[in-house]
Each structure stands twice: as structure tokens, then as C-alpha cells.
Design goal:
The complex is a heterodimer of chains A (637) and B (773). With 637 residues, chain A is an alpha+beta fold. Helix content of chain A is 29%, strand content 36%. In chain A, strand 32 and strand 33 form a beta hairpin. In chain A, helix 3 runs parallel beside helix 5 and helix 4 packs antiparallel against helix 5. Chain A starts with 12 loop residues before the first strand and ends with a helix. Chain B has 773 residues and is mainly alpha-helical. Chain B is built from 36 helices and eleven strands. Chain B has a five-stranded mixed beta sheet, sandwiched between helices. Chain B has a two-stranded antiparallel ribbon with strand order 1-2. Chain B starts with a helix and ends with a helix. Classes of the chains: A alpha+beta (637), B mainly alpha (773). At the A-B interface, helix 1, strand 23, strand 26, helix 3 and helix 6 of A face helix 1, helix 2, helix 3, helix 4 and helix 5 of B. Chain B: Keywords: Endoplasmic reticulum, Glycoprotein, Glycosyltransferase, Magnesium, Manganese, Membrane, Metal-binding, Transferase, Transmembrane, Transmembrane helix. Chain B: GO terms for molecular function: dolichyl-diphosphooligosaccharide-protein glycotransferase activity; metal ion binding. Chain B: One of its GO terms (cellular component) is oligosaccharyltransferase complex. Chain B: Its EC number is 2.4.99.18.
Chain lengths: 637, 773
């Protein structure tokens, strides 16, 4: 049990050393405020200090009771100047011989002359000092807590006069210590004034009152900040949350919880997390998926997430979740040449009056960051740096790991990380992708071009050779057909314009081209013959046919008789018919070409419909997605 | 026989025969179209191979993409989450595999299932799915692509659906031609019958097994066609993968022997067949026995005997063939052949009969029947899952039978057997779907071949070589002069000249319409019927906004966070996997319903009165009881609606204690209101479901305690629980969890006040004797 009083600290001015406290400073007037309205004990003391000693005083000592000291989350002192601005004091932990408790030494901005006075404001926050009593309650009961502290300011200096004001969470108070006839108004109790209190005096204060504020504690949080130089900073917090108030005893009845407003009054239904204003893509999930019970509100200066755990948190219940978001890096990342500085909050707001038992911060810097130097706003223990591998990493990104226990809202401060980074390294990842695709395509090219078969098949080779020659023949024949068609056009034009010159010149060029084509085909024909394929005969047939056609039509066109385009057309058809036969013969001889236009044509018929089918289905999917996507977007996280 | 072989060989290799008939037209239209479009397609002429492979690659890629994206409805609407029940187990074991390694997974004894029995997971599971997902996850992480194992699991089935499309394309190409193959790939990519089991999040064996099935069949057809050991070994490996993935491998190991057997009957025995089947049977057998869960089943159980029988028959037949070369007594041979084949046939048919009728009858116990996917298929669901394909696939089958060859025999058998099985069980619709897609694709392809390119026919009927049977004759004729061909074909084509361009375009338009409607139907069904995770429910308000009912996860997560790590949760077996997966707590029974008596015990506890149930729960060390109750929001799949199955299953094992008739009214109705039977109104399930529900008034039109699911005011509103207390109820009361109270401490009795002690004595009296017995 504890015998000490409320959290008190004392400032004492001391000329040379702490041991000469008695003849140094005096607390002329002390106003203490104990704020017990949440689950934290926030104790503020405004102290009027006077130097009654002979020498100037450069520093003062703040003291904490031994009972409260382990729960200290935050301590801060400031000097109240003439103007409204407060000046923060730097604190350093020290020890005092023969006295229990925890002591801090604060250097004064300017030394205090003898007889001079100074107003100092000391703020402390303690966590886990409000003990639920009874420790187990049913769903219908209210939560009562006990606070044990000190009536006086715990100080190494004598105090002339002091008052203590306690703010409570509700009107209901079971009991409170009645030193010096305190006055109790609505939600507060006033103690004092106490006159002439000697140094290090303690007197137990005990207040048992109703406090239904959420007793939420973050038992551990891991905050991961991943910096990308491509413009994004990803923040992810993995949070273990626990209700540290009075344990729930007996059943949890949903019916009562839904129907009666005061049922489970101390339980936590939801809370608000405030994210930076530029936070995007917020997600809120846990091991088994997205937690659908949350709302996101984008305000001018922040993004508010209303976080509702999957289930209401009663005393002793816990939950675990992950919240993450992206931030644009231009707001937090500064650079000068190769030197970079990242300025981010070491820990951010999770809920009002937050208590973090254990914090782990992981800062993932880009791959290749060197000369890393960290400036923390308050001492924090660094662990061994790690390496993190994610998309397209080769040698890993440096990870700074730091831990700290017992944090409160006052710890939401910026940390600055300086490092060097060579900008050329930005190209590494795109080049990696390009290289990978290059190798892939190259391998495919190599694979397709080379023959990896173990045995040689001469028949197949001949077949392939013949196939390629046949293909060439086909191309040429087709070209020739194109010429005929062209001729048709020329004749048609002639029929309209009756321009003999144009006709003749067109004819001449066409005839010349026709001749070369025919010659080429003949050359190929001989090659086919050389391969011993009877396809040569077929080609010969075509040639013969073509000669017939040519004789039939070119003179016809020239002699200006009616050139029947249809006739010419049918002639070309006939030729194609021959081509068909050519191909079929190729098939029958087992010289089938996988590459024959016939399959491609056939393919294109089926594929046309397949394509339409596909496009349709894709379209309908898109249609549905568009219908439903907005609703998913609305739900936010 | 040899002649026949070459002919058929020519047919399939080239996609030519059926293609040949059209290709006549096709070739014409190409140049014409080319000229018309100003040489746009001329590249296709100069390099048809490039165009063709590019086109098929593009279509397959698009099919993959369409298949993948149409399976993402649930992810878009909800989130990347594992669906339903079984996938949760698969996910949990994959998670175990990826965190603890392969050997640890094989040796995994899961003490969180089937308390107090536990489950040897490595030996009772088809590991293919987990290993596949684990391997992908491992490789991705090796490449520093930090994907969570959950996302690998969620997207595995959609990715594999693309592979299924590719293997269906390959198989159909072997059976018919490339065009039909592409159509089949597109069909299978979006057909609901397959999507139902492979949406994103449905991390189940079937997702990868259909790919393995199709690919095994492709390799089988390929090996029968080539007679090459290379393809057969590939087939065996694929079969091995299938065995490791799904119990449906039995389908393969029966269908392939059936194919061989029928080929023998059709006198289509060939060396290729002999090589293919002998290799497949031996290597496949050895490989399949490597899966711990399969073990020695392939040489012991009846469903594998057909394969062995056919293997023996094939050897005998081959031996006879060998003798045939040596001996001349042909009559003897035929007699011998007949005798052998008859005997083998009889054996084969009995085995088949035993397997599929006898065994179903044997295991026809309530627990099998209680599973909804084991119900016989209705006609509606055929149409629902396959739409127009169900009408067109007989046409495809007809085309195949009309132009029969070795592999088309296979597809015909595949179709017939799959139709039979799909009729037996809704679930086996899955094996029917691929073959329906293939055959429908063949039907559509043939129709398109017939009716497209009609302008060519009109302009130049002579060059047309008509229907398939005349293929050879035409080929002969084509050697002749063009003029001759013209005469011949125009003669033959006369009846077809009736098909004018109008009819052709109408038919084509109709076919296109059908395909469009098919695509729309598929998307609609996928979106509305198969894309619900069933772990997360959604309801829509009047203004179209959506409410998410996340009660399941709420309650499971509560269990995970706020109960003892070794707490034992009793629930109906449906929720076992989900509790294990999401709440990470020990369950008594789960979806791996291997122990009927254990399930019956849970069923008995649920259907007994509270004190009897308490005895059972005590003996089973139950800490929490979880039930699903839909009365508040009108969710019909809750435990009261399943309750009769619990009673039936409990009655099967404990006929003295539980009688189904007790739970009905004298009129034979199952009612929860005042008229319901008193046994029902006082059983544990009823009490837990409606505990404090009698006070709840949902709206002003209905009395308090009005059950929205069953539309009745409950009959027992004053429910008090003695041995249980409400531990948690989710927001919409969908999941209710009760804590089983521990027995009072005996020593404490002395110190308590007398009146309390007297009260306690009443309860402890019952307990006392049992302690000392």
C-alpha cells in the first residue's frame, strides 16, 4: 500500500548545490490542481518562489513522492514571465541524499537574485494511479475509483501557503479525506489553505469517487513509418488496446446494453483518432480483415477517424487493430542536395488522454540512405537497426527502431531524422523492372528462334522449307491478284475519263510488275522442284492459269471492249480457288502449315465472336463495378 | 486401321477437317477483305503464323483477364477476405505452412480441432492447395514482393481460373479446332458453374482442382494421340497434382480407364493407346500413393479397381494382338476376345455400380444429407449455372459423335458421366461445367463456320467444299481442274443454296445475341449469387446505402481477444472452421465431419434440456457455447432452422434420449411459438437462441419476442439459464455466446450463509453422485 500523498513536486532554488536546500528558496504561495476527471492524474502546481537566501540561485529542484514516481508519464516545468509567454525549463534527473522519491533539477533561464521572486508552473501526468474499487463490477454498476496522493506539495523547500483543488469526474463521491475541512462543490474538492508546511511533508489524501470515463490503455503500439522518395510516406500503427477499469463481472447482456442508456456506462464504444490533414487511403483492420464499424471525416486541419472496435470494450476486455494511412512526403521530407531531413511525429494522437504503456517506432528509410542521425524531442531508447525488404529491394532498407514506455498526449512531438541519399539510386528500381522484362523477352526470343530438339527430323525440315516456299508463293500470287484488281481500277477510271494515256501508262507499269512477279514465282517453283515436292506442279498450274487470264484480260482492257469487272473478279476468284486446291494438297500430303491463311481466317471468325463476348463481359463487369465502387468508397476505411 | 489413323491425325492436327469445310470460304474472304480494307490485314497474309498466335494469345489473355476480374466482385464490394467455411480451414493450414514450413505442416497435429481428439492435419488433408499457395507466397517473398499470405489465398482461385481457361483451350483444340478452343476458354472463364467455386476469397480445393482436371485430360488426349511417353509422363504429373489437390481425382482415375475400355470395345486399340494407358496407370498409381491422405487407397478401395481391371484387360488384349500375328486361328481369337471383354465389362460395371450407388447408400446418413451442397441438382440450377450452354452442349456432343475419333470418344464419355454426377449432387456441377463449355464451344464454332462468310458462298459457290463427310472426296477432286470442282460442288451444294444471305445473317445475329445474353447472365449471376463472402452480410437501405452486418467477425474476434487461449467452444459443426480460423479457439466439431458420433453428442447437447446438456458439456470440458440466431434481423441460415438436423443426427446415435417426433407439434409441425412442442421450447438450443429475446420489441407492429426469421412470436418468453450465462451477443444478435458456469467450489459451501447453502445444495445434489461413481 502506499502512504504518500498526491503527486507533488517542489522547486527549490539552490545556490550551489542541492544539499544546501534549507537556506535557499521558499515556496511563498502554491496553487495545486489535481485533475482526476479522466483516467489520468494530471497535477499542475503554480508556485510563487522566493529566494530568501543570500546568494543568487541558478537552478531549482522538483520532487516527486516515491509512491507516485513510478507512474510518472510526463513532467514539465515552465517559468511564467511578465508577458504571457511561458518559458520551458530543461529538466535533468538527480538524487537527493536521505530522501525518497524522484528528483529533477531545472536550470533557471536567469539566476534568481536574493529576495527576488519567480513564478513557476509545473505540470505532471501520472498514468494508472486511479485504481478501480471495487475491482469487479457488473454491467449495471457504475465504476468507482480510488485516488491516493498527498495533501501537500512534495517539495524540498518549505511552503508558506498552499491550496489544493481536486477536479473529479462526477458529483458522486463515496468518501474523501477531510484534512482541514475541505469544501466540496459540484465536481471538485478544495483543500487548504495550509500554512507553513515544512519540506518533504506528506499527508495521505484518499478520494473514492465515481469515474465512468473510458479507462483505455494502449498496452503496446508499433508505429511504422515507411518513407519513399517517390512521394509517399506510409504510416501504420499496430495497436493493442485494453480497458483497464473495473473488470466486468457476470454476463454481458446485449439487450440491456441496447435498451438501457446507463448500462455498461464505463464501457468504451468508440473513440476518435485524429490523423494529419493530408492523410489518405486510411485503413482500419485486424487479423481477420477490415473492421467495418468506422467512419472517416475529413476536416480542414485534420482527418478524424471514428474508431469503433468490433465490440464494445468492457472492463478487462482487450482488442487489437491496425490503422494505417499514406501521407504526401513533401510535407514531411526536406532536402538540400543529397541531404534529407524527415520531420514526423514520433507518436501521434490515438484518443484523447491517451496512455501508451509501450511504444515501438520503426522508421524505414529508403534503400541506400546513409549517415543517419536522429534528433528526438525526449530521450528514447534505440535498439539495433534492422533491414527491411519490400518490393524490388536488393540490399534492404535501413530501419531505425526505438522504444519507450509510458507515454501520454504530451509526448506527441516531432522527431527529426537526417540522412544522405544519392538520387541516382532512385533509378535502381525502374531499371530492375526494365532489366527483368528485357531478360524475359530475350529468353522468349532465344527460345523461339533456336531448335532445342534432341533428334533431327529431315522430313520435318524439308516440310518446313517447302512450307516457307509455299508461303512465299502465296504472297506473290496474292500480290499478283492485287495487280489485277489495280488493273480493274485503272480500267474503271478509264471508262469514266476516257484518258488513254493514263490507261496505257498504268498498264505498262502493271505489266512490268506482273512480269517480275511471275518470274519470281517461277524461280520459287524451281526451288520447290529442287526440294522434290510435287507442289511445284501445282504452282505450274497456277502460272498457266494466270497466263491465260492475263492474256484474256490485259488485251481486253487495251482493246477498249467492255471490260467486265465482274469477269475479272471471277477470274481472280478462280485463281484463289486454285490456291485453295494448292493448300488442300498441302494438307493431304501431310505438309500442313499451321500457318496457312485458312486457319487464320477461321480463327478470326471464331475469335471475332470470342472477342465480342469478352468485351461484353468486361463491359458488364465494369458496369457492375461502377455501380458498386462508389458505395465502397463512401465507407472509407 | 493405319489408314484411319492418318486420316484422323490429319483432322485434329490441323483443325482442318471441320475447318476445311469453311476454310474454303475463309480463304476467299481473306484476300477480299484485305483488298477492301486497304491492306489492313495484309500483314496477316504475309505472316499468318504471327497473326494467329498473336490473336490467340490476345484472346486467351483477355479471357484470363475477364475471368479474373469477374471473380473480384466480393473483393470490390467487401474486402479481401476468405469466404464461407471450408476456405477458413484451408487458409489456417496455409498460414501454418507458410509460418512453420512444409515438414512441420505435414506433421501438424491440430489440437484445436475435435477436442479432445485433435486432428492429424497432414494426414487428413489434400495438401495441393496449401502447398500451391504456400509456394507462391514463398517465391514472391523470395523476390521481396511482400504479399500477405491471405492475399495469396484470396486471389489464388481467380488466377487459377485463367489457367483453367488455357488448359480448356488446349483440350478443346485437341478435340476440335483452335477456334472452338478459344470459345471454350472464354466460356469457362466466365461460366457461373465454375465461378461459384472460384471467386476471390473462395480458397477451396476446387479452385485449383478444375485446372488440374482439365490439364490432365488435355495431356491424356495428347498422349493417346501421339502415343508418346513424354506426354503420358506429363499427364501423370498433372494427375499427381490433381490427387494432391482434390478428392475428385477419382473421377479421372475412372474416366480414363472407361475411355480405354470403350476404345477397346470400338476396336480402336492401337499401340499409342497401349503405351499411354500402361504408363499412365503405373506411374499415376505410384505417384498418387505418395499423398499421405490417399495412401494405399488406390490398390484397396473399389473406386480404383476399374483402373486396375482395364489395365489387366489392356495387357491381355495387347497380348492377343501379339498372338494374332503369330497364330492363325481367328475364330478362337474372336471368341477369346469376346469372353475377356465381356468378363471385364461385367467386372467394370459392377465396380462402377458399387462405387456410385452402393457407397452412396452406405453413407446416406443424416450428416451427409444435411449438407446443402449434397442435395440433388434441380433443373433450375443447371440453367442458372450454365445458361445457354446447357442447351447447346448436346449439339456439340452430337458433332463429336458424328465425327468420332479416339479423343472424341473421350469427350463423349466425359460429358455423359459428368451429367450423371451433376444430377446426383449439386456440388458436382463443377465437373460438368468444363465439358459443357467445351462441347458448347464446338457447337457454336461449327455453327459460325457454317453461317459466316456467306457472301463468299453467294459469289463463288464453285470453290466451296462442303460438309465434313465429303472432305476426302473433295480433296480428291481438288486435284482436278477447277472447272470440274465447280460442277461437282454446285451439284452437291444445291440444297444449301436455300440458305440465303438473310437467313445466314439472322442465324449469326441470333447466335451473337445468345452469346451476349450469356455474358450478361454470367455477370449477373456472379455478381448476385456467388459473390457474397457469407462471413460479412450486407443489407441495403431504401436510399441505396449499404449497411454491413459484421456480427460473425465481431463475435469471433471477441472470442479471440477476450477468452482464455485454451478455451473450448462448442458450436454446431458448420462454424467449427470459422471459429478455429478467426477466433483461434479450440472447437469440438468442425466441417471435417469425420466423426459422426462426436457431432451427434454436440447435437444431443443442443437438443436436450439444460441440465442434461450441462452434463454433456461438462464431460466435454466446454467453456463457451456459440450459436447463430437470426431472429432479430431475419437471417434464415441460423441454428434454429438447422435444428432439426441436429436432432436427427443426435437421434441416429442416441435414439433413446432424442426423438425427432418430440420436437414436432402433434400436427407434425415445427413451430417455435406457443403451439410448439414443450420439448423444443425447453431444449438448450431454443433457450440459448431466445434468451431475453422475449423482452425485445423489434417494432411497433409486432409483439415483443417476435422472431423475424420464422415470423412467429416465440412461445417461451421467460427463459432462465441455470448453468450458462450470456457471455457475448453481437450487435444484431446474430451470434450469441454463452459461458458454461464452473461448478461451485465445494469447500466454499461451509463458509456461506445457510440460506444460500440450502439453495446450492439443490444443484450440488445432482452433481455429487456422479462425482463418486
Amino acid at each position: 500500500m502506499w502512504s504518500g500523498g498526491a503527486a507533488i513536486f517542489v522547486l527549490v532554488s539552490c545556490v550551489f548545490c542541492a544539499s544546501a536546500l534549507a537556506d535557499g528558496l521558499v515556496n511563498e504561495d502554491v496553487k495545486r490542481t489535481l485533475d482526476l476527471s479522466s483516467h489520468l492524474a494530471k497535477i499542475t502546481a503554480e508556485i510563487q518562489l522566493a529566494n530568501h537566501g543570500a546568494a543568487r540561485v541558478n537552478s531549482l529542484t522538483l520532487a516527486l513522492e516515491a509512491e507516485l514516481a513510478p507512474h510518472l508519464a510526463f513532467i514539465g516545468a515552465s517559468v511564467k514571465g511578465e508577458e504571457e509567454e511561458d518559458e520551458g525549463l530543461e529538466l535533468k534527473e538527480t538524487t537527493l541524499h536521505g530522501q525518497s522519491g524522484k528528483f529533477f533539477e531545472a536550470q533557471l533561464p536567469s539566476s534568481l537574485a536574493p529576495g527576488a521572486k519567480l513564478r513557476v508552473k509545473v505540470e505532471t501526468v501520472f498514468s494508472h494511479v486511479l485504481k478501480p474499487f471495487p475491482s469487479h463490477i457488473t454491467q449495471a454498476e457504475q465504476q468507482l475509483v480510488v485516488f491516493q496522493g498527498n495533501h501537500y506539495l512534495y517539495s524540498p523547500y518549505p511552503t508558506r501557503s498552499q491550496t489544493t483543488r481536486v477536479r473529479l469526474a462526477s458529483k458522486t463521491v463515496e468518501s474523501y479525506t477531510k484534512l482541514g475541512n475541505p469544501t466540496k462543490s459540484e465536481e471538485s474538492i478544495e483543500y487548504g489553505p495550509f500554512k507553513d508546511v515544512p519540506p518533504f511533508s506528506q499527508d495521505d489524501m484518499k478520494i473514492h469517487y465515481e469515474n465512468n470515463t473510458p479507462f483505455l490503455t494502449i498496452s503496446s503500439i508499433t508505429r511504422t513509418i515507411e518513407v519513399s522518395h517517390w512521394g509517399n510516406i506510409a504510416v501504420e500503427e499496430t495497436i493493442d488496446l485494453r480497458h483497464t477499469g473495473a473488470y466486468l463481472k457476470g454476463p454481458f447482456s446485449r439487450y440491456d446494453y441496447q435498451r438501457q442508456s446507463d448500462s455498461g456506462i464505463s464501457s468504451v464504444k468508440s473513440f476518435k483518432t485524429i490523423l494529419p490533414a493530408s492523410a489518405q487511403d486510411v485503413y482500419y483492420r485486424d487479423e481477420i480483415g477490415n473492421i467495418s464499424t468506422s467512419h472517416l471525416q475529413v476536416l480542414d486541419d485534420s482527418v478524424e477517424v471514428e474508431i469503433r472496435p468490433r465490440f464494445p470494450l468492457f472492463g478487462g476486455w482487450k482488442t487489437h487493430y491496425i490503422i494505417g494511412y499514406n501521407l504526401p512526403s513533401y510535407e514531411y521530407l526536406y532536402n538540400l542536395g543529397d541531404q534529407y531531413a524527415l520531420k514526423m511525429r514520433l507518436v501521434d494522437h490515438i484518443y484523447d488522454d491517451q496512455v501508451i504503456d509501450q511504444l515501438t517506432v520503426k522508421l524505414i528509410l529508403p534503400e541506400g540512405a546513409r549517415n543517419i542521425h536522429v534528433d528526438t524531442p525526449y530521450p528514447i531508447s534505440r535498439s539495433q537497426d534492422e533491414l527491411h525488404y519490400t518490393y524490388l529491394d536488393t540490399f534492404g532498407r535501413p530501419v531505425l527502431v526505438a522504444t519507450k514506455n509510458n507515454l501520454v498526449e504530451q509526448h506527441i512531438q516531432d522527431v527529426v531524422v537526417h540522412y544522405n541519399f544519392n538520387k541516382i539510386l532512385m533509378l535502381q528500381e525502374p531499371l530492375l523492372v526494365v532489366g527483368a522484362f528485357y531478360i524475359l523477352f530475350f529468353t522468349v526470343i532465344i527460345y523461339v528462334r533456336l531448335d532445342f530438339s534432341i533428334t533431327k527430323d529431315p522430313a520435318a525440315e524439308v516440310r518446313m522449307k517447302v512450307a516457307s516456299i509455299t508461303e512465299q508463293v502465296l504472297t506473290l500470287v496474292n500480290k499478283r491478284l492485287g495487280l489485277y484488281r489495280h488493273m480493274d481500277e485503272v480500267v474503271n477510271r478509264y471508262k469514266q475519263s476516257r484518258d488513254t494515256g493514263a490507261l496505257n501508262s498504268g498498264r505498262k507499269t502493271l505489266e512490268a510488275e506482273h512480269r517480275t512477279l511471275t518470274n519470281d514465282i517461277t524461280a520459287l517453283q524451281t526451288r520447290l522442284k529442287a526440294e522434290g515436292s510435287d507442289l511445284a506442279e501445282k504452282v505450274g498450274e497456277i502460272q498457266k492459269l494466270d497466263r491465260l487470264e492475263g492474256q484474256g484480260h490485259f488485251p481486253l482492257a487495251t482493246s477498249l471492249t467492255f471490260c467486265f469487272p465482274g469477269q475479272l473478279f471471277s477470274a481472280t476468284r478462280l485463281l484463289i480457288g486454285n490456291l485453295d486446291s494448292l493448300l488442300s494438297s498441302v494438307e493431304t500430303k501431310g505438309l500442313f502449315l499451321l500457318t496457312s491463311p485458312d486457319t487464320s481466317k477461321h480463327l478470326s471468325i471464331s475469335s471475332l465472336h470470342t472477342l465480342s463476348l469478352l468485351i461484353l463481359s468486361t463491359f458488364s463487369i465494369l458496369h457492375f463495378s461502377i455501380n458498386y465502387l462508389p458505395s465502397t468508397c463512401q465507407s472509407g476505411t | 486401321m493405319a489408314e484411319h489413323h492418318t486420316a484422323s491425325d490429319c483432322k485434329h492436327k490441323a483443325s482442318s477437317n471441320a475447318g476445311g469445310s469453311v476454310s474454303g470460304n475463309g480463304r476467299h474472304s481473306s484476300p477480299a477483305g484485305c483488298g477492301g480494307s486497304g491492306g489492313g490485314l495484309s500483314g496477316g497474309l504475309t505472316q499468318p503464323a504471327g497473326w494467329q498466335s498473336l490473336l490467340s494469345f490476345t484472346i486467351l489473355f483477355l479471357a484470363w483477364l475477364a475471368g479474373f476480374s469477374s471473380r473480384l466482385f466480393a473483393v470490390i464490394r467487401f474486402e479481401s477476405i476468405i469466404h464461407e467455411f471450408d476456405p477458413w480451414f484451408n487458409y489456417r493450414s496455409t498460414h501454418h505452412l507458410s509460418t512453420n514450413g512444409f515438414y512441420e505442416f505435414l506433421n501438424w497435429f491440430d489440437e484445436r480441432a475435435w477436442y479432445p481428439l485433435g486432428r492429424i492435419v497432414g494426414g487428413t488433408v489434400y495438401p495441393g492447395l496449401m502447398v500451391t499457395a504456400g509456394l507462391i507466397h514463398y517465391i514472391l517473398n523470395l523476390l521481396h514482393v511482400t504479399v500477405h499470405i491471405r492475399d495469396v489465398c484470396v486471389f489464388l482461385a481467380p488466377v487459377f481460373s485463367g489457367l483453367t481457361a488455357v488448359s480448356t483451350f488446349l483440350l478443346t483444340r485437341e478435340l476440335w479446332n483452335q477456334g472452338a478452343g478459344l470459345l471454350a476458354a472464354c466460356f469457362i472463364a466466365i461460366v457461373p458453374g465454375y465461378i461459384s467455386r472460384s471467386v476471390a476469397g473462395s480458397f477451396d480445393n476446387e479452385g485449383i482442382a478444375i485446372f488440374a482436371l482439365q490439364f490432365t485430360y488435355y495431356l491424356w488426349v495428347k498422349s493417346v494421340k501421339t502415343g508418346s511417353v513424354f506426354w503420358t509422363i506429363g499427364c501423370c504429373l498433372s494427375y499427381f497434382y490433381m490427387v494432391s489437390a482434390w478428392g475428385g481425382y477419382v473421377f479421372i482415375i475412372n474416366l480414363i480407364p472407361l475411355h480405354v475400355f470403350v476404345l477397346l470395345l470400338m476396336q480402336r486399340f492401337s499401340r499409342r493407346l497401349y503405351i499411354a494407358y500402361s504408363t499412365f496407370y503405373i506411374v499415376g498409381l505410384v505417384l498418387s500413393m505418395q499423398i499421405p491422405f490417399v495412401g494405399f487407397q488406390p490398390i484397396r478401395t473399389s473406386e480404383h479397381m476399374a483402373a486396375a481391371g482395364v489395365f489387366a484387360l489392356l495387357q491381355a488384349y495387347a497380348f492377343l494382338q501379339y498372338l494374332k500375328d503369330r497364330l492363325t486361328r481367328q475364330e478362337f481369337q474372336t471368341l477369346f476376345f469376346l469372353g475377356v471383354s465381356l468378363a471385364a465389362g461385367v467386372v467394370f460395371l459392377t465396380v462402377i455400380y458399387l462405387t456410385y450407388t452402393g457407397e452412396y447408400a452406405k453413407i446416406h446418413i443424416p450428416i451427409i444429407a444435411s449438407v446443402s451442397e449434397h442435395q440433388p441438382t434441380t433443373w433450375v440450377s443447371f440453367f442458372f449455372d450454365l445458361h445457354i450452354l446447357v442447351c447447346t452442349f448436346p449439339a456439340g456432343l452430337w458433332f463429336c459423335i458424328k465425327n468420332i475419333n479416339d479423343e472424341r470418344v473421350f469427350v463423349a464419355l466425359y460429358a455423359i458421366s459428368a451429367v450423371y454426377f451433376a444430377g446426383v449432387m449439386v456440388r458436382l456441377m463443377l465437373t460438368l461445367t468444363p465439358v459443357v463449355c467445351m462441347l458448347s464451344a464446338i457447337a457454336f464454332s461449327s455453327v459460325f463456320e457454317h453461317y459466316l462468310g456467306d457472301d463468299m458462298k453467294r459469289e463463288n459457290p464453285p470453290a466451296e467444299d462442303s460438309s465434313d463427310e465429303d472432305d476426302k472426296r473433295n480433296q480428291g477432286n481438288l486435284y482436278d481442274k477447277a472447272g470440274k470442282v465447280r460442277k461437282h460442288v454446285s451439284e452437291q451444294d444445291r440444297p444449301e443454296e436455300g440458305l440465303g444471305p438473310n437467313i445466314k445473317s439472322i442465324v449469326t445475329m441470333l447466335m451473337l445475341m445468345l452469346l451476349m445474353m450469356f455474358a450478361v447472365h454470367c455477370t449477373w449471376v456472379t455478381s448476385n449469387a456467388y459473390s457474397s463472402p457469407s462471413v460479412v452480410l450486407a443489407s441495403y437501405n431504401h436510399d441505396g446505402s449499404r449497411n454491413i452486418l459484421d456480427d460473425f467477425r465481431e463475435a469471433y474476434y471477441w472470442l479471440r481477444q477476450n477468452t482464455d487461449e485454451h478455451a473450448r467452444v462448442m458450436s454446431w459443426w458448420d462454424y467449427g472452421y470459422q471459429i478455429a480460423g478467426m477466433a483461434n479457439r479450440t472447437t469440438l466439431v468442425d466441417n471435417n465431419t469425420w466423426n459422426n458420433s462426436h457431432i451427434a453428442l454436440v447435437g444431443k447437447a443442443m437438443s436436450s434440456n439444460e441440465s442434461a446438456a450441462y452434463e454433456i458439456m461438462k464431460s466435454l470440458d466446454v467453456d463457451y457455447v456459440l450459436i447463430i440466431f437470426g431472429g432479430v434481423i431475419g437471417y434464415s441460415g441460423d441454428d434454429i432452422n438447422k435444428f432439426l438436423w441436429m436432432v436427427r443426427i443426435a437421434e441416429g446415435e442416441h435414439p433413446k434420449d432424442i426423438r425427432e417426433s418430440d420436437y414436432f407439434t402433434p400436427q407434425g409441425e415445427f413451430r417455435v411459438d406457443k403451439a410448439g412442442s414443450p420439448t423444443l421450447l425447453n431444449c438448450l438450443m431454443y433457450k440459448m437462441s431466445y434468451y431475453r429475446f422475449g423482452e425485445m420489441q423489434l417494432d411497433f407492429r409486432t409483439p415483443p419476442g417476435f422472431d423475424r426469421t420464422r415470423n412467429a412470436e416465440i412461445g417461451n418468453k421467460d427463459i432462465r439459464l441455470k448453468h450458462l450465462e450470456e457471455a457475448f451477443t453481437s450487435e444484431h444478435w446474430l451470434v450469441r455466446i454463452y459461458r458454461v458456469k464452473k461448478q461451485e467450489n465445494r469447500q466454499a459451501l461451509d463458509h456461506k450463509l445457510r440460506n444460500i447453502a440450502a439453495k446450492q445444495k439443490y444443484t450440488s445434489k445432482k452433481v455429487l453422485p456422479s462425482r463418486f461413481h
